[in-house]
Amino acid sequence: MYRINESKMYYDMADGQAIVINFVTGMYYGSNLLGSAVLDRLQAGVSPNSVLEALRGLPGCPEDMGEQLDAFIAELISREILIPGPTNAEECCLIGGEALEDGFFLTVDEFAEAQDLLLADPVHDVDASQGWPVLRED
Amino acid sequence: MPRISVIVPCYNYGRFLSECLESLFAQTFRDFEVLVVDDGSEDYTREAVRNFPAARYFYQEHHGISSARNRGLREAGGECIAFLDADDLWLPDKLEKQAAYLDAHPECNLVFTRMENFYDGDPALLTETALRLLNTAEPLYLPSACIRSVLFQSYGGFREELPHGEDTEWVMRAGVCGEDLGNLLEEVLYRRRIHGGNITLTHNPNSAREYLKIAAAAIHSARKLKRTPEKPSAGRT
C-alpha cells in the first residue's frame, strides 16, 4: 500500500483535483479527475486491487484498466510522490461517475510554472538586499 | 473615475488609523479615492475616520480581512487598486511613483515597492517572533502594490476562507496564471508596523506547511481559472 512521500511532497485535493507540490524542486503535479480520485484513494492506503475493483465497477471501464493503473502507480513512485505505506482497509474506495467527466484514463502531469514562487517562501527565504526571486544562499 | 482606489481594511485598529490615513492624504499624487472598510470594529475606528471626511467609510459585520478587501474591491471605482493596512504607513510619494511607473510601462499590470518594518513601542516588549518579523523583508508584499483593477476581474478577489495569507495566495495565483510579478520599485515606500496584534505574528509565520497550504490554494485557484472561461468577480475565485 502507499502513502504520500511527505519528506518531499505536499498533497492537496480540492474540487476533485489533486495537486502534489514537490517543495524540494518547486515542481508540482496534477492529474485528470479520474487520476485524482485514484491518487486520493491510493495515498489514503487503499489497496491497488480495491481501487481496480472500484474502477471496473464504473460504466465503460476499458479492458486494460489494470495495466493503466499499474503504469499510473509506477509513475507516481518514480516521481517519488508515493512511497510504501500502511493499509487502510476502512477507507471507502467508491469512485463516483463525476470522476469520468474528463475521460477514462489516468495522467500524471508536471508543472514548472510556480517553481520560483514555491522554492522561495517570500517571507523568510528571499535575499532581502536583492529581492524576489533571489534566494538566500543557505 | 479616480485613477487609484485605496482600500484600507480595518478591524479594531482605531488606535493606528489616524496616522495611517494621514500618510494616505499626504500623498503627492492626488487622483485617488480612499475606502475604509470597517470589518466590525468595536473600538473607535468609525470616529477616527470621521476626522477624514474625504474617506469613504463602509461598515460590515466581522468576516475577516479577505472579506473586507473584497468589499473594498466591489465598492472601488478606480482604474487601479492599492491596499493600505490600517496599522501601516505610506511614504508621501508612493502613489506618484507607482502611477508614473504604470504610465511608463503599459505592459505592466502591477508594481510593488520595497517595504520596511518598524516598531515604535518599548523594545523590551518585543517577542522573539516579533523581532524576527521586524528583520524580515517581503519584496512581494501585496499591500505595497499598485494593481490595475482588471487583474481582479481576471483573477478574482481574495479567498475568504483563508484566515491569513490571503494576500500571498492572491499574488501566487496571479503568478501561476502567468502575471509578471517582477515589477518592483527599489525604494522603500511602504512601512509595516510591527506590534503585538499583527496577523502574521498570531498565525505562526514560520510554518512551512502553512505556506504550502496557501501555495496549494493558489495553484487550485489558478488552474480553475484556466479551465473556466467565465471571469470571476471580487470575492469569488
From TrEMBL, chain A:
Domain of life per record: Bacteria
Designated name of the protein: Coenzyme PQQ synthesis protein D (PqqD)
Organism of derivation: Papillibacter cinnamivorans DSM 12816
Taxonomic lineage: Bacteria, Bacillati, Bacillota, Clostridia, Eubacteriales
UniProtKB/TrEMBL annotation, chain B:
Alphabetically ordered keywords of this record: Transferase
The UniProt record lists the keyword Acetylation: no
Domain Glycosyltransferase 2-like: 5-128
Entry's transmembrane regions: none
UniProt keyword Coiled coil, yes or no: no
Superkingdom classification of source: Bacteria
Protein name: Glycosyl transferase family 2
UniProt organism field: Papillibacter cinnamivorans DSM 12816
